[in-house]
Design a protein that fits this description.
Blueprint: H1 2-6, E1 11-17, E2 20-28, E3 33-42, E4 46-48, E5 58-65, E6 71-78, H2 86-94, H3 120-125, H4 134-143, H5 161-178, E7 197-202, H6 207-215
Antiparallel strand pairs: 1-2, 2-3, 3-4, 3-7, 4-5, 5-6
C-alpha cells in the first residue's frame, strides 16, 4: 500500500486492556486523512495483525517457546462472516501473508539453515529482499539478531514504544509469577476476544475514537463468534 511506502515513520499510540495492549500506528494518508494500523499484543505470546479492514480475513500468531533458542509459531486466519474458501486455504498452505510454506514436518521451507533460499538475481532486478514470502522476510530480519539477541546493544526509538510496553508487561508478569502472584490475564479469558485491523480516519482523531469507529469500542473487543 502506498501509504506504507510514503510514510515510513508512523506515530504510535497504545491502549491497555485486561489481555494485553492495542497498538495503533498512524500514517499520513490522503489529504486530511490518517491511515491507522491497529495491532493486538496479547499476554503472553499472541499477536494479531493490523492490516484487516471490515469484511477481510483476520490473521494472528502464537509463539510457543521450546527452549531458549527456538519456538513453535502457530499461524491462523479466519473470517467472522464466512468460511474460508478452498482457494484461500490453498494460498495459505503455499505460503501467504503470515503463513510460511512448510514441509511435511511443519518446518518452514525457506529458513535460516538454507538462507531462506534467497534469490540474488531476483533481489537485483525485482525484489528488495530476494526472499519469497512475507513471513519468511520477517523471519530473516528477526533471525539476523542471533539465537539470543544482545539487548544491551539495542538502540530503541519512538517507533518501538509498543515493543517496550509489551516487553515490560511480560517481564512484570514473570516477576509476579515468581513471587507467587498469578498474572490477572490468566483469569480474563473473555478479554482475549479482540481484533486488530486497519482504518482511515480524519487527521488528529485519537486512537480511542479510531478504535470506537473501527470496532465499536475502545479496545477492539469482538462479540464471541459462534461455531
Amino acid at each position: 500500500m502506498k501509504w506504507l511506502r510514503e510514510d515510513g515513520i508512523p506515530q504510535f499510540s497504545t491502549t491497555f486492556h485486561e489481555a494485553g495492549i492495542a497498538l495503533g500506528a498512524a500514517r499520513k494518508a490522503n489529504p486530511g486523512q490518517t491511515y491507522w494500523r491497529i495491532s493486538q499484543f496479547l499476554m503472553p505470546v499472541h499477536a494479531l495483525v493490523p492490516s484487516t479492514f471490515p469484511g477481510e480475513n483476520y490473521h494472528g500468531q502464537t509463539f510457543v517457546p521450546i527452549d531458549d533458542r527456538s519456538c513453535w509459531i502457530y499461524t491462523y486466519t479466519w473470517n467472522p462472516d464466512r468460511a474460508l474458501t478452498e482457494t484461500e486455504r490453498a494460498r495459505y498452505a503455499r505460503g501467504h501473508t503470515i503463513h510460511s510454506a512448510v514441509d511435511e514436518q511443519w518446518i518452514p521451507i525457506r529458513r535460516r539453515e538454507n538462507d531462506y533460499l534467497i534469490d540474488r538475481l531476483d533481489q537485483k532486478e525485482h525484489s528488495f529482499t530476494g526472499i519469497a514470502g512475507v513471513s519468511e522476510q520477517d523471519a530473516a530480519v528477526q533471525d539476523s539478531q542471533g539465537f539470543i539477541a544482545d539487548r544491551t546493544r539495542e538502540h530503541l526509538g519512538v517507533t518501538d514504544v509498543g515493543l517496550l510496553q509489551f516487553r515490560k508487561s511480560v517481564m512484570d508478569a514473570a516477576r509476579s509469577l515468581a513471587a507467587g502472584r498469578v498474572p490477572p490475564s490468566v483469569f480474563a479469558g473473555d478479554a482475549y476476544c479482540v481484533r486488530g485491523g486497519g482504518w482511515v480516519a480524519p487527521v488528529d482523531v485519537p486512537l480511542e475514537d479510531v478504535m470506537t469507529a473501527r470496532f465499536g469500542n475502545t479496545i477492539g473487543a469482538a462479540e464471541r463468534e459462534r461455531v
